[in-house]
Amino acid sequence: MVAPLSHSKNAQENVEIICGDVRSELRRLPADSVQCVVTSPPYWGVRDYGVSEQIGAEPVLRDYVNTLTEVFREVRRVLRPDGTLWLNIGNTYSSGGRTWRGADAKNKGRGMSYRPPTPDGLKPKDLIGVAWMVAMGLQLDGWFLRNDIIWNKPNCQPESVKDRLTVSHEYLFMFSKEERYHFDQEAIREPRKDGNGFKNRRTVWNINTEPYSEAHFAVFPTELVRPCILAGSRAGDTVLDPFFGSGTVGLIALETNRRCVGIELNEEYVAMARRRMEAVQLDFLTEGIA
Predict the structure, then answer these.
(1) Cα gap 210→89, rounded to integer Å
(2) Contact of 239 with 38, CB cutoff 8 Å
(3) In-domain check, residue 5
(4) In a domain, 2, yes or no
(5) What's the domain range around 202?
(6) Looking at the 3D structure of the chain, how many domains does it have?
(7) Closest of 255, 160, 148 to residue 202, by C-alpha
(8) Contact at 8 Å (CB) between 246 and 41?
(9) CA–CA distances in Å: residue 114 to residues 44, 48, 63, 99
(10) What is the average pLDDT across 62-90?
(11) Tell me: the pLDDT tens digits for 200-246?
């Protein structure tokens, strides 16, 4: 596990990155060992991450929902009794029978060599409520579903569609392990429009997407992660991201004086995340010298 928190915010001491399949690596973590989980799993049929047996590439939608339910059942074991889970996930559309998707010049990660078939009972072009299927799967499995937060993207990617609206939002679900849990409302209050004090944070968050030059896939915006960590944990606590990707959760954990454990299957992403942690550490050292 992660070494005791260092006041120097040393990335190697305070962020542990585990390269492996989340379905096996989670079992190695002790029960009740993390305070807060912030993560975004691969979406169903949306990205090809180039890894065999990757989550999100299941031909059958039910298998995807069941797989994530099992993953987060193990997350619940690892989470402390007063801990919370913040789960970012988006919906998708049925493929209409297409078995592949060409590369997009604006988003290379959208090119796919496979497309899952239209789920049983649905029609071509149907909006599939995958996000809510997963959320309700977790709820039925024992999680307390506390909030559905709308992440509105003011700078969302354009879509060349003519018979529906451009999708500009995703969901961020807040779950708790128990009925009562740690939640720091004061840490994430919003300023009132009239400038007269603060108010409780609302459930629609307007946050721009943030590109990262090394990644061809969608990365967590720092301002989406920050309120989750501030509300769900205290300084010195351990935060877990079981789908670590490029490591944004680790960055914010360092900035807010938390520890972090990240699990990532793709070795290239692990190397990328480690470079990001090292760069942040250098920034801290430079600030100290200045």
Answers:
(1) 16
(2) yes
(3) no
(4) no
(5) 11-289
(6) 1
(7) 148
(8) no
(9) 12, 8, 16, 5
(10) 98
(11) 999 999 999 988 777 656 688 999 999 999 999 999 999 999 999 99
Tokens 């550490």 correspond to what residue? 281
What are the tokens at 232? 């769900």
- Compute the CA torsion angle 211, 212, 217, 220 (nearest 10 deg): -70
What is the rounded CA–CA span in Å between residue 11 and residue 99?
42
Question: Which residue, among 76, 117, 74, 77, has the nearest Cα to 96 in the 3D structure?
Answer: 117
Global pTM reads 0.89
**Residue among 214, 272, 267, 249 at smallest CA distance from 21:** 267
Q: Which residue has the tokens 């459930």?
A: 203
CATH code for the domain in which residue 55 is found: 3.40.50.150
In a domain, 173, yes or no: yes
Would you place residue 141 in the very low, low, confident or very high pLDDT band (cuts 50, 70, 90)?
Answer: very high
**Which amino acid is located at 118 in the chain?**
T
4 in a domain, yes or no? no
Specify whether the CB–CB gap between 85 and 40 falls below 8 A: no
Q: Is residue 36 helix, strand or coil?
A: strand
